[in-house]
Write the C-alpha cells for this entry.
Amino acid sequence: MEFTFEEKTDMFAAYVLSGRAPAAALSDYRVRFPNRRAPSLTYFAKLEKSLRNFGRFDRVPKSFPAEELETAILAHLA
C-alpha cells in the first residue's frame, strides 16, 4: 500500500525537523500521527533522495527511460 502525498509530506517534515535522524523522525511521526501506518527507517532518506533527484516524492517511472524519450524526441524532430 502506497503512502499518500500528504503522508509523505508529513514524513519529510518530521525528517527535516529531526535533523535528518531517521529514528527521531519515525518516533515523532508516530506521536503526531498515531492512527497512520508508519514508514520504515530507510523510507525517510528515500523521500529526500527522490526530492533531490526528481523534484518530487515519486520517482520517474522506470518503464520509460530518459534515453528512450530523448531518442523519440530527436526522431520526431528529424
Q: What stands out?
A: The chain is about 60% helix and 0% strand.
